[in-house]
Each structure stands twice: as C-alpha cells, then as structure tokens.
C-alpha cells in the first residue's frame, strides 16, 4: 500500500484515474493496524480497479482537517477527485468489500 502525504495527495488521490480508497491512519491506532492486512488484500485483489493508499493523520494534518477526519481509521473513497464514500472504523474484509461494491 502506498503512503500519501499532504504534499502529494492532489496528484496521488485527486488526480488518479481509478477510484482511490484512502485510509486515514495513525501509528498508535490499534484498529488501523487490524485493518492493514485487510486493505493490503483488497489492494491486491482489486488491482487495476481500485487504488488503496494510507495517510498518517499525525504527519499530514492539512489533508486530515480538509476532509473533516475526526477518528481513525476513517476510510474515504475518491472518484474523479471527489469523496464519494466515507466509512469509520475497522471492519472485516467481506463487509468492507460489500460496502465498497457500489463505488468501485
């Protein structure tokens, strides 16, 4: 999974041709660590259909504030440079895929 920053968020996420799932995460966040393997699996399975990236909220406050992220993990799906889906909290892979099906 690629890590994005405030500096490259516009290029990597807003300018992407594919839908992009952004995990707003933090090193200290237990549920974020639990979600990591799930997102890596989804990134591999949906390669070519969905881009999956992480953004550390502590090191990238500009993007975090700009999108109103108040809790970790928050997952935002962007399509065409706009957020189209927001999910808060860790969840199992099957549930996450079901929730993402309509936006990818």
From TrEMBL:
Classification via InterPro entries: Thioredoxin (IPR005746), Thioredoxin-like_sf (IPR036249), Thioredoxin_CS (IPR017937), Thioredoxin_domain (IPR013766)
The Thioredoxin domain, residue ranges: 1-104
Gene3D superfamilies: Glutaredoxin
Pfam families referenced in this protein's UniProt entry, alphabetically: Thioredoxin
Domain of life: Bacteria
Keyword Transport annotated: yes
Keywords: Disulfide bond, Electron transport, Redox-active center, Transport
The keyword Electron transport belongs to this UniProt entry's keyword annotation: yes
Homology family: Belongs to the thioredoxin family.
Protein name: Thioredoxin
Source organism: Streptomyces pyxinicus
